[in-house]
Design a protein that fits this description.
The complex is a heterotetramer, with 2 copies of chain A and 2 copies of chain B. Chain A is mainly alpha-helical. Chain A contains 8 helices and no strands. Chain A has a single domain, classed as DhaL domain (Serine Threonine Protein Phosphatase 5, Tetratricopeptide repeat, Alpha Horseshoe). Chain B has 8 helices and 16 strands. In chain B, strand 8 and strand 9 form a beta hairpin. Classes of the chains: A mainly alpha, B alpha/beta. Bound molecules: adenosine-5'-diphosphate (2 copies) and magnesium ion (4 copies).
Chain lengths: 213, 333, 333, 213
C-alpha cells in the first residue's frame, strides 16, 4: 500500500481505538504502580471521543479529520493524557493541511509534526520514562522507512515494533515526569503506561490499515 | 474491603456532585455552561479575575474557593483528572478583561499540560493573563526544583491573598507578585495514616500498612517514602513542622501561618491537637504563629491524614489574609 | 483493625483538643476557666444569652457554634460524655443576666441529667433561664414521645435561628418560641455506612457489616435497626427523605430546609449527590427547598454516613436563618 | 457493729472504690452492648474523684464528707452516671446534717434520701432497667433490717445481696432509659451496667465496713 486516503486514515484510527479498548486494564494496572491507576480509563474515554469525532467528521479532508480528533481528545478531562495526545493529533492535522492522500513520506512528516507538537508541551526527554520513549523510536522508524513509494503498511509495522520496543525499555527507566516521578527508583521495573498506550496506538494504526487493505 | 460510598453511576459522578455543590452554595456560586463554576455575583470588570482548574473528588477544592475575595472561575475536571484545554480556554474567554486574568495552576502533570495548551490558545486570542504555578509539596524534591514539587493545599492561601488583592484593585502584575511571594515563602508536607478508594473504580488509593503512617504523600496518595510507625499527634506535629521550617528556612522572630488540611477521615479533633503542639514548638523557636487555618479544604476522599502547610507572612500578606471573603469553603467578615 | 488516630494521652484528649480549637479560632472564641468556650467578643448584656452543653469528640459541635449570632457559651464535656453539673452551673452563672438565658439541651441521658441538676441549682440562685430540649431523631420512637427521640445535628438550625433572634433583641420568651417552633417542625434521620473507633478506648463504635448500611443510628452509633444493603446516593436520599417528610407530615406548597451533616469519613462529594436528589424529590412533591446546609457539623469521629435533617421554615425563620453569624462552624455575612 | 462514724464511712466509700476498680472492664463490656461502652471508665473516674475528696475532706463531719464526695462525682464529665451518682451522695449528705455517728436507722434513712435524690433526676421506674433496679431493693433491705441496735454490717450484707439480685434481674428487662433504650428488645439478656455498678458499690460498702471492723 503506497498511499493513505481520508477513509483509510479513519480505519487506522479505529484500529487504534480497538487496540486500546482491548488492553485498557493493563494500562490502568501499569499506572497504579506509580500513578493514580486511571490511564486505561482515560485512554478509553479518549478513544470514545475519537470515535465520536470520526463518526461526525464529514468533510472528507485528512486535515479536518485529524483536527477534529485532536480537539475531541483535548476535550477529555484526562489528566496528562488529554493534552498530550490531543496536541499530537492537532499537530498532525496542521501538517496535513491541503493533503488529499498521504504517501509514506507524508505519513512520516505528519507523525514528526505530531511528535513536535507533543514535545512543545513537555520538557520530557527520551529516557525520562514517558510516552516520548515510545513515540520517538516509532517516528524514527517511519522516517527511515519513508522511501518514495514505500509500503506504508510495512512502515507502520516497523513503527509499531519500534514503539513496542521503546515502551518495553521504559521498564528500565526511572520516571522523571508525571505522577510516577514521586516514587523515584520504585518506578524501575514497570513499563510506563503512557509509553505503553502509545505503542498500542501504533499497533492499532497498523492493524486498522491491515484490515482496510 | 469493598468501597462504601454513597454514589450513583460513577460516569456521572463529577457532573452530579457539581450540581449538588452549586445547589448547596447557591448564594455564593453558579454554573456557566453547566461545567464552569463562577461567582453568584460577578466581580467588577475593572478588577483582575482569578481562574483555576483542577480535578474533582477533592471537595471543597477547588470550586469551593470561588467567591468574593477569592476565585472568579474554577474549571472542575473529572474525578482526579484535570479538565481538558477546551474548557479551560472557555473559562479564560469568560474571564477576559482589560485588567487581566491571574491564572493559578497547581503543579500536576495534567493540570499544567492542560493549562499550557489553553494558555497558548488564549494568548493567540489576545487574552491578557499571568500564570502562577503552586508547587509547595516539599516531598517532591529539593527546594528550587520547582518541576518536582507538586501543588497541594497551599493553593488556598495563595488564592486567598491574591483574591483579596484583586478585590482591592491591585493590578495584574501586583496580584501576581503577591501570589508569588506567598507561594515562594511556603511549603507543604502531607502525612497519610489510612488509604481511600477511588470513587469511580473502587481501586485502593494508597494502602497504608497496619500501625504505620507515611509522611510525604501527594494529593492522590501516590507513593512517596516516609513510611514509619504511627506516632502520637505531638510527635507527628514535630516531625512535620521541623521538616517544613527547615525547608523554608524559618528564623526566630519571623511570623508564619500554619494551615492544617484534613484530607478525609482524620477528625478536626486530631488537627486541633496537632495545632496545639505546632504553636508550642514555634514558640520554643521564637517564631510567631501569626495565623492559622484548620479544616478540610483539599481532600482525598476518605483518606486518613492531613497536610501541614507553613508559610511566611509579612504585613501586606497578613492584611490580605484577613480581608473579607465569601466562598463555600472560607467566609470571613 | 487497630485505631489509626493522631492523638496523645487519651486522658488529656478533651482538654488538648479544646486548646487547639481555641487557637485555631482565636478571633471568634476564647476560653474562660480553661474549660468553658465563650465568644471572643461578648454579646451586649441586654440581649438574651444562649448556652449549651455536650460531650466532646463531635467537632466542630458544639463549641464550634459559639460566636456572633449563635451561642454565647458552650460547656464541652469529656469525649462522648456530658460535662458534670458544676461546670454547667458555672456557665449559667457566667451568662447570668436580666434578659435571661436560653439553655439549649440535646436529648441524651447524660446531657439532660447534668442540665437538670445545674438548672435546679441555678434557679435557686435566681438565674433566669428557659430550657429548650432538642429531640428530633425520628429513629428514637413515634413523634410526640419526646423522651425517646434524641437530639442530633438538628441542634444547629435551632441554635442558628434562636441565636439570630437573641442578636436582634428578642426577649427570652420570644427566643424560646422561635427555637421551639424550629424544633417542633424538624426531624433528623441518620445513616451509617462504616464504623469508627472510640478515640480513648480504641473500641469499635458501630460495626457495619460489609456491603450494608444502617438507617436510623444515633449520635454515637448505638445500635438502632434499619440494616440493609448499601444503596446508591439517589436511593438513600429517597429512603431517608421519604421517612422524614412523612414524620413531619410535609405537604405540597411548603418550604423546608434540608441539612446534610457528614458524620466523619463520608465526603462532601457524596453529600452533594444526596442534596441533588433531595431537591429533585422535593420538587416532584411540590415542596420548596428553601434553604440547604451541607457539611460536617456534628461528627462521630471517622464514622461513615450522614444525618439528614429536614424542617419547616416560615418567613421569620428564613430571615433568622439568613441573619449574619460568625462562629467557627458557620459564618455568614 | 451498731454505729458508723465519719472514719468508718470513709472506709466504706474506699471499699466501694476498690470494688468498682476491680470490675470496671466488666462494666464497660456491659455498657457496650446497648450503650457506648464507657460505663466502667466513667465509674473509675468517679471513684478517683471520690478518693480525692475523701483525702481532702478534713472536717470530720459525715454531712461534709458525703457532700464533698457528691460534688466531686458531679464534677466528673461522665454522661448519665455523674449527675445520678453525684446527686445520690449529695442527697445522702442533706439527710446527714448534724449527725456525728449513724445507727442502723440512720443508715437506712440516709440511703433512702439518696434514692429519693436519684429519683428526682429521672423518670425511670423499677423495671426500666436502670440503676434504680439495684438501688430500690438495696434500700428496702436496709430499711427492713433497721431495727434499733441492729448490726449494720449484717444490714449492709443483706442490702448488697438485694442489690446484686436486682442487678441480675435487669438482664430480663428491656431498657427504657439511657442509651440502651435505642436497641429495644436487644437489650434483654444483658444486665444493666448502671444497676451492676450500683450493686458493686453496695458490695464495696460492705467490704469496706468489714475491713474496718
Ligand atoms: N509531563 C509529562 N510529560 C510527558 N509525559 C507525561 C507527563 N506527565 C505524564 N505523562 C505521561 O502520561 C502518562 C500518565 O497518563 P495518565 O495516567 O492518563 O495521566 P495522569 O498522570 O494525569 O493520571 C505517563 O505514563 C506518562 O507517559
Ligand atoms: N435517664 C436515666 N435514668 C436512670 N438511669 C439512667 C438514665 N440514663 C442512664 N442511666 C443509667 O446509667 C447507665 C449508663 O451509665 P454511663 O454509661 O456511665 O452513662 P452514658 O450512658 O451517658 O454513657 C445505665 O446503665 C443506666 O443504669
Ligand atoms: Mg494516571
Ligand atoms: Mg489521573
Ligand atoms: Mg457515655
Ligand atoms: Mg455509657
Amino acid at each position: 500500500m503506497n498511499t493513505i486516503t481520508h477513509d483509510t486514515l479513519a480505519e487506522m484510527l479505529r484500529g487504534a481505538a480497538a487496540e486500546i479498548r482491548e488492553n485498557h486494564e493493563w494500562l490502568s494496572r501499569l499506572d497504579s504502580v506509580g500513578g493514580d491507576g486511571d490511564h486505561g480509563t482515560t485512554m478509553v474515554r479518549a478513544m470514545a471521543r475519537m470515535e465520536e469525532a470520526l463518526a461526525s467528521s464529514v468533510s472528507g479532508k485528512i486535515h479536518t479529520l485529524l483536527n477534529d480528533v485532536g480537539w475531541a481528545i483535548l476535550g477529555v478531562d484526562g489528566g496528562a493524557t488529554g493534552p498530550l495526545l490531543g496536541m499530537f493529533f492537532v499537530s498532525m492535522a496542521s501538517a496535513a493541511e491541503g493533503l488529499e492522500e498521504l504517501g509514506a513520506g507524508n505519513v512520516a512528516a505528519l507523525f514528526e509534526a505530531g511528535l513536535t507538537g507533543v514535545r512543545a508541551q513537555t520538557k520530557a526527554q527520551p529516557g525520562d520514562k514517558t510516552l516520548i520513549d515510545a513515540l520517538v523510536p516509532a517516528v524514527e522508524a517511519l522516517r527511515a522507512a519513508a522511501e518514495p513509494g514505500a509500503d506504508i503498511l510495512e512502515a507502520l509495522h516497523l513503527a509499531a515494533e519500534a514503539a513496542e520496543a521503546g515502551a518495553k525499555l521504559t521498564s528500565t527507566m526511572q520516571a522523571r515526569f508525571g505522577r510516577a516521578r514521586n516514587i523515584k527508583e520504585q518506578s524501575i521495573g514497570t513499563q510506563d503506561p503512557g509509553a505503553t498506550s502509545m505503542s498500542l496506538l501504533f499497533r492499532g494504526f497498523k492493524k486498522g490499515l491491515e484490515s482496510h487493505a | 474491603m469493598a468501597m462504601k460510598k454513597l454514589i450513583n453511576n460513577p460516569d456521572n459522578l463529577a457532573k452530579e456532585l457539581l450540581e449538588g455543590f452549586v445547589l448547596a452554595n447557591s448564594r455564593k456560586v453558579a454554573l456557566v455552561r453547566s461545567d464552569l463554576v463562577v461567582r453568584a455575583k460577578a466581580k467588577a470588570q475593572g478588577k483582575v479575575a482569578l481562574v483555576t482548574l483542577g480535578g474533582s473528588g477533592h471537595e471543597p477544592a477547588l470550586s469551593g474557593f470561588v467567591g468574593e475575595g477569592m476565585l472568579d472561575i474554577s474549571v472542575p475536571g473529572e474525578i482526579f483528572a484535570a479538565p481538558g484545554p477546551p474548557r479551560v480556554l472557555e473559562a479564560l474567554r469568560l474571564a477576559k478583561r482589560d485588567a487581566g486574568i491571574l491564572f493559578i495552576v497547581l503543579n500536576h502533570a495534567g493540570d499544567v499540560l492542560s493549562a499550557n495548551v489553553a494558555t497558548g490558545l488564549a494568548e493567540k486570542e489576545g487574552i491578557k493573563l499571568r500564570r502562577v504555578l503552586t508547587h509547595e509539596d516539599m516531598s517532591g524534591g529539593p527546594r528550587g526544583e520547582s518541576d518536582d514539587r507538586r501543588g497541594l493545599s497551599g493553593c488556598l492561601p495563595v488564592i486567598k491573598v491574591a483574591g483579596a488583592a484583586a478585590e482591592k484593585g491591585y493590578s495584574l502584575e501586583e496580584c501576581a507578585t503577591v501570589a508569588e511571594r506567598m507561594e515562594a515563602g511556603m511549603s507543604t508536607l502531607a502525612v497519610a495514616v489510612s488509604g481511600a478508594t477511588h470513587p469511580c473504580t473502587g481501586d485502593v488509593i494508597a494502602e497504608i500498612p497496619e500501625g504505620m503512617m507515611v509522611v510525604g504523600m501527594g494529593q492522590h496518595g501516590e507513593a512517596g517514602g516516609g513510611t514509619q510507625p504511627l506516632k502520637t499527634a505531638d510527635e507527628t506535629a514535630e516531625i512535620m513542622l521541623t521538616a517544613l521550617l527547615d525547608d523554608i528556612q524559618a528564623k526566630p522572630g519571623e511570623e508564619l501561618f500554619v494551615m492544617l488540611n484534613g484530607v478525609g477521615s482524620t477528625t478536626l479533633m486530631e488537627l486541633y491537637l496537632v495545632l496545639r503542639r505546632v504553636k508550642q514548638l514555634l514558640e520554643a523557636r521564637g517564631i510567631t504563629l501569626a495565623r492559622s487555618l484548620v479544616g478540610e479544604f483539599l481532600t482525598v476522599q476518605e483518606m486518613g491524614g492531613f497536610q501541614m502547610c507553613v508559610g511566611r507572612l509579612d504585613a501586606e500578606l497578613k492584611a490580605l489574609w484577613d480581608a473579607p471573603c465569601e466562598s463555600p469553603a472560607w467566609t470571613a467578615k
